[in-house]
Amino acid sequence: MTALLLPALVALPVVGAALAVLAGDRLGRWVTAGTLALQTGLAAALVGRVADDGPTRTVVGGFRPAVGVELRADPLAALIVALVAAVAGGAAWYAGAVGARSAHADALVLLLAAGLSGVGLTADLFNLYVVLEITGLAAYALVALGERGSARAALRYLFAGTVGATLYLLGVGYLYVATGHLNIDKSSVFVSGLAPSSTLALAAFAFVFAGLAVKIPLVPVHTWLPDAHAQASVSASVVLSALVTTAGVYALVKVLYGVFGVEFLTAVPAVGALVSGLGAVSVLVGGALALRESKVKRVLAYSTVSQLGVVVVGAGLGTRLGLTGAAVHLLGHAITKAGLFFAAGLLSLSTGAKTVEECAGVGKRAPVVGAAFAVLSLGMVGVPPTVGFAGKWYVLVAAASAEAWPLVAAVLASSLLSLAYFGRILARMFFAPPADGLPADAGEPSVGGGTPANADAPTESVGASVLPILAALATLALGLSAATLAQFLEPAVSSLLT
Amino acid sequence: MLEAYLARLPYLAAVALVGVGLGVLVGEPSRLKKVVGLNVFQTGVLLFFVAAAYRSGGRSPLVRDATRDAPSVNPLPHVLVLTAIVVGVSLTALALALVVRVRAEERGGGA
């Protein structure tokens, strides 16, 4: 059973995707729901097993680990797989509840879940390339299913994503030539006797980092993201912004610590400075761009660039506290951002508000979803007791104890910037009178209201309004149990650091 | 000096392909040509893997040849390249489909 659990988590969504397409639009809905429910159950079982018995591993096909493709689950990987299953399930639920479901979109979400679970579980550098590309292919196609103009955004995303993945592959080639194996073994660069400051090690790192930076994305290679995330449908934006970027950061942490190791960071301090520095730049630039945007979805997209910058700052520090903070903020951001996209989607469905201007008075017309949006926004800002506070606090303390004051300033700036761009939306939502330009509705004060344009949607979107509320509760619950979460992640952080 | 470069000719070719591919991808306005550039770029990286596997005088890793007792070339990069080609083909197919759709949207008038 144990031997099958890890491969099943990757294989199940692929099979489900094929069946969903074969079953057609109506039946496919149940196939998707069943697959994602089963996937979530398996992922929960994995988290339980890792909590009880420690990390678990399987080598696919029974080869030696050095030759075969190894799947490995430590606490962080298990949580990422569980997050993928849960958020993908939420996205499928949303699509079903607002009537935007098609078997093809469902199949793509399932394929995406398969690729992302693979990113979480794989312990093989080349396999990581393959699962990143599976994720990418599904993501490009999902973007293209969005509104008009989405094909152009998807094509740009494809070009950027493929160049990133191919650069990563080139870096893997360098590593393979240098070390002679592809398994992400702890400090495999040093096991092979490669000097950390050798040109070969630095070149391999440069290609791998450049490739993954496009996928994360870090400034200045983030330019594909806002269009891709804003043009996609709501459920696609959720999986893109909450999961695909998360997988990119997780892949970076895996390679940076698994292959290069802490010794590499201490031997070549410039590397850590580069990683954390680019993270800090992403925080500032992403936040400033979010402040200038007028469309709510684009604000959320730029906010992803900014928040992931905080995670990368923590990941580049190379300390226990920094990595813990990065992991906590990574998971917290994914849940919070998913909830925000759900809430923004529901608000625009029920009131027609798509831009920050149009949000005026929305909080009074849709109080429940509006309140969830407010809680989630505060989570992004990092107000206690949300998980956003816990993650930023860990990263902040880690940066301070490393005496990296510019990074401390960047993390603080991330809170101020997110307060500014979310505050702008919240102020309009709750304190501004409704604008005249909005489509007049019947004045029903909840999501159940709806505009004439969406006359058939409202009754169903009540089902979807559970999602932002669940996400808001999860943000609070995770924030209150942040110490437990950090303790659960402890073995993963220690194994990354040794 | 020249000899050292000649011995690494496949690597030089890989670098050239990567450079040309990226140049086309960035510089060409035509989307179709960008897709071709992407392919050339990926091919350069694949050539790097194949070049790394080569051993002068090496034999094929699968076909047994009793008359030759030479070390075999490394089969693993070839397998990796095969997989990477499959990935590349899927990406090209999706990219071409998107190019067709973008063009249809542009022809369809409106914004």
From TrEMBL, chain A:
It comes from the Archaea. The chain crosses the membrane at residues 76-96, 103-120, 157-177, 189-214, 234-253, 265-287, 299-318, 368-387, 393-422, 466-489. GO terms for cellular component: plasma membrane. Residues 124-417 form the NADH:quinone oxidoreductase/Mrp antiporter transmembrane domain. It is a multi-pass membrane protein. It is found in: Cell membrane. Pfam families: Proton_antipo_M. Keywords: Cell membrane, Membrane, Transmembrane, Transmembrane helix. This is Proton-conducting transporter membrane subunit. It comes from Halorussus caseinilyticus.
From TrEMBL, chain B:
InterPro entries: CPA3_antiporter_subunitC (IPR050601), NUOK/Mnh_C1-like (IPR039428). Signal peptide: none annotated. It is a multi-pass membrane protein. Gene3D superfamilies: 1.10.287.3510. The chain crosses the membrane at residues 6-26, 38-56, 76-100. It is found in: Membrane. It comes from the Archaea. Keywords: Membrane, Transmembrane, Transmembrane helix. GO terms for cellular component: membrane. This is Cation:proton antiporter subunit C.
